[in-house]
Specification:
By secondary structure, the chain is mainly alpha-helical. The protein contains seven helices and two strands. Strand 1 and strand 2 form a beta hairpin. Its main location: nucleus.
């Protein structure tokens, strides 16, 4: 157990990261041997299987690294570097600035995806035009809604004064009419029906 900023940090988390890192390194070496052009070419299913294992090991290591406990740790060597090789390794591990080649490549990528100034101006003009059109249509919709509300209020106000015909027959009246028609049909005799058919259209 080690104490850092008043908190007890268990070394088990670091050991887990180290174990996952060694597993990833071992799996990576096996994969390199599989795709080594100097060796016999392996079957594609075998290559795919080992690549999937490599990806799984990487995911496991990544899950260990994002452990919140590790964010509270600060690692440093127990003794200062004594050789040029150790100083070089420490410089690489503690580097906060990319090497010039990588910085140049990053800048090239940024330049490729960046929007030119003239394109920005056109984009701003398009956005302004769309906002203007949107405000115009919103004003039209508001005016249309006011007309609809006025028409509805006017109709409700004068509906009782106008003699409006109903467009449908109430269900009660419709049932009574159907019952009367059935009664009239029952009263007709066969002679009445034949006489009506023989009379032809009127």
């Amino acid at each position: 157990m080690d104490e850092f900023f008043g908190q007890n940090v268990n070394i088990v988390e670091l050991e887990a990261v180290r174990s996952k890192l060694l597993q990833l390194q071992e799996t990576f070496n096996f994969f390199l041997q599989t795709v080594n052009p100097e060796l016999p070419i392996a079957a594609w299913p075998e290559i795919l299987n080992k690549f999937n294992i490599l990806v799984a090991k990487y995911v496991n290591l990544n899950n260990e690294i994002i452990n919140p406990v590790l964010k509270k740790l600060v690692l440093h060597p127990n003794e200062p570097a004594t050789t040029d090789q150790e100083n070089q390794i420490m410089g690489v591990l503690l580097r906060t600035k990319q090497i010039p080649e990588i910085e140049r490549e990053e800048q090239e990528v940024k330049d490729e995806v960046s929007i030119p100034e003239d394109a920005k101006a056109l984009l701003e003009n398009d956005i302004a035009a769309m906002q203007n059109a949107l405000s115009i249509w919103q004003a039209k919709i508001k005016k249309y809604d006011s007309f609809c509300n006025f028409a509805e209020e006017t109709f409700d106000k004068h509906m009782d004064k106008a003699a409006l015909k109903t467009r449908y027959v109430p269900e009660e009246e419709q049932e009574v009419t159907e019952d009367l028609a059935m009664e009239e049909a029952d009263k007709r005799t066969l002679e009445d029906t034949l006489s009506w058919i023989s009379s032809g259209p009127k």
